[in-house]
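# nightly structure sweep
# worker-07 picked up a monomer target from the shared queue
# config: single-sequence mode, recycle default, output format = structure tokens
# input follows
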Amino acid sequence: MRVLAWVLGCLLLTTGCTVDGSGGGVDRFRMMVPNVPGGGYDVTARTAVSIAERAGLLDDRVAVFNLAGDQGVIALSRLLDESGNGRLAMMMGLGVVGATIASGSGHRVTDGTPIARLLQEPEAVLVPADSPLRDIEDVVRSWRADPGGLGLGGGSAVGGPDHLMTMQLAQAIGIDPHLVRYGTFDGGGALLPALLDARIDVAVSSLVEYAEQIRSGQLRVLAVSGPERVPWVEAPTLTESGIEVIFTNWRGVIAPPGISDADRERLVRLFHDLEQTPEWRDALTENSWTAAFLDGDAFAAFLQSEDERVRDALAELGLG
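# output follows
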């Protein structure tokens, strides 16, 4: 746990730290978030930091910085350009995998140093409180009647979890994915106003990003994509509703390429220690996240398989 305290403590922009834990002026450890504040990556990173503070692992507050753009491709490019920098890491997930492939970027998440996968979570089908779509069956009827007329959107680009989930849902109910009108927004913070302003009719996104709006009644959840219901949400799973779709998103951490073995081991140990805290397990439950910890070589193999899976899925849709 002392390693956790040191590494997260180095996130402080007011305190310099070298990678070996000694004072080092401008040498500071930083955690990069590849989308805008309020998005899923941002919530995950800041939750981890908050837990470290509440658990007494830190003496001071921690800063996390956002570098949004191109659905995570810009942040990934920044990470990869800092080869050998053991003082930088990035929160990432399925959305960044898909964005690199769909955009034709020369960068891949597999080019970085894999640290750990932290969690999985279901997607949700969401509408504003005053939407005429009262349940998932209404969405299916409206969508089938006019596949291009229903506006859907997600906080991830083509190839990201919201997009892949939408296309999988379309295929499951017999709609040609090429006819789907899907709007791309850079994270949940940008998606919410589009839904409330009626620029789209239905949003597909994670629950944690909109917990406040769901609990207040501003948004309604019509269905969730996981294998089981979410306890605090009054909505069925897609499979309960007769739609054979089970879909989960995931999030993890990578570092720049070329970091030392010592830095890699230290970062892996950091997130292993974080994963073991009771506070983190409580956060998983509270946010409807599922523990899905993988580290080191196991996470590297997972990243490679996800890159191949998304590439094949987009090629099938004619988008890869």
